[in-house]
Design brief:
Elements: H1 4-17, H2 34-56, H3 58-79, H4 94-99, H5 107-125, H6 134-137, E1 149-152, E2 156-163, H7 165-173, E3 183-193, E4 200-204, H8 206-216, H9 221-232, H10 234-250, E5 254-258
Antiparallel strand pairs: 1-5, 2-3, 3-4
Amino acid sequence: MKTLASYQDEFQRAVVDGDDAVLVELVDTSRENRRTLLGVYRNAYVERLIDFLETDYEKLHALLGDEHFTTLARDYIATHPSKTPNARWFGFKFPEHLRASDQYADAVLFADLAALERSLTDVFDAEDSDRLILDDLSAIPPQDWPSLAFNPHPATRRVDLTTNAEEIWHALNEDETPPAPRTLGETRQIIAYRPEHMAMIRAMASDEAMMWDEASKGVCFSVLCEMLSIFSGEEEAAIHAAGYLQGWINMGMLSGFKTG
């Protein structure tokens, strides 16, 4: 005899995976057959997943409108069925899915905008942690500075954009008409961060983005200065590195440091 749990498992597979085995357990009604009735639940499940994507990618939804966004969402759902009960992670691969698509003329723009939105969601949800302050560095002897390595705060994410997705995001965020999509002449380097309780984004200069990316890997301060010298020369590199470091600390983008 089947248990309630086994019936529930069969029904879940029918709704989530399209398994029709449960149909033998269902009965027709006087108004509809069992397959149509099961289809109601399947459609409701897909619509709920679309709602999740609309929430996670609000600006992309606003740009595309209901019809076009739903088309993208259904394509994603068919390719990446939900594998976790936590809706937070269902749409995590949406930017990569859009970037790999060849069905849409502006797929790269859609992917960039989605990646930007995901970075903001990630930093908003990221765990809290202590933040490095300037006073923490005041006691470090000068001879130890070359070996300093810094820890990025968990609520930081770097994104590279090749389109004007950032400009479009800002326009939509201000309820303004967004500009036409266009490809940029050079990569736009963005960092998302959460100074207190609000996720924010800002652009980075190429040398700052390079320094951040390498610092996030644990590269020490002296090597970071050497890398910056490629952009600004040896005499200015240390000054630029110190300036960027101070900015990161003031914006709460670092959680600590280590030496050695």
